[in-house]
Amino acid sequence: MGRAPCCDKANVKRGPWSPEEDAALRSYVERHGTGGNWISLPQKAGLKRCGKSCRLRWLNYLRPDIKHGGFTEEEDKIIFSLYKTIGSRWSVIASHLAGRTDNDVKNYWNTKLMKKIMAAGETINSPAANSQITNKFHHPSPSPPATSPPDQIPVMKAEAFLPPATLDSNFPYSLEPYPLPQLPAEFAATGYSLSPPSDDLSVSFSASSSSITMDDSEGAYFNQAAAFFPDLGFSSWTELLGGFITSGVYQNLYS
DNA sequence: AATGCTATCAACCGCACAGGT
DNA sequence: CACCTGTGCGGTTGATAGCAT
């Protein structure tokens, strides 16, 4: 038996809230509080709404201390910093921003801030990204890479960080190294290896597969990287390094 | 002016968890 | 200890405003 729904969907109103509904909810909560029970609140407040819907409306819109409108540069920094540290735990991130809700922060990140950061050449490496890469390795590979000793070992270098000079001068964040994803044991067994960021903040990638072909000019981009990891299911540096590197220059150090 | 596309954000959904019984 | 219920959370959807063609 499945869990009973939280409310009778046939008898509750859905969709955007009217000013009258907002007024009724605000008035009730200001006079009585939530009473610790959102489920029974709509009936007491004379609203034909689901309790969860009332809670969401109050927390995200009607609460008196809610701050609407644009995010400041300082808030951008806090969000970015916390995202890199804890990932998409929006409620935790929002708790560090006075008057902001998790929904607000989430929407802002997804629609504006991530693009702003990407456009500036920054990389975003969150714990969530690391778990994605780990999960990917746990999927069975259709066919393992060749294990015979390679004739040559191409070494690819991914510039995980662009030098500050290439950034938009208005970009507020400093560049700092981040730890590489935790790669599982299966990865080492394939003959591939990933080196930690070096002094110049780049990441080196070594591979033993002779199927890898790169020209020796600077600037090999994603379309060429698509041949990197067919057996592992990776089609790009973006996927390999956690799904967030979408810009940068990839250089072949071997000719 | 009409149409299509994109960005934004409010709202919903389903799941996990905590606390009560 | 198992079950039930309410709450909180993150992911996703859908409406629509604004922009481009």
TrEMBL record:
Its main location: nucleus. InterPro entries: Homeodomain-like_sf, Myb_dom, SANT/Myb. One of its GO terms (cellular component) is nucleus. Residues 9-66, 67-117 form the HTH myb-type domain. Residues 9-62, 63-113 form the Myb-like domain. The keyword Endoplasmic reticulum does not apply. It is found in: Nucleus. One of its GO terms (molecular function) is DNA binding. Keywords: DNA-binding, Nucleus, Repeat, Transcription, Transcription regulation. This is Uncharacterized protein. It comes from Dendrobium chrysotoxum (Orchid).
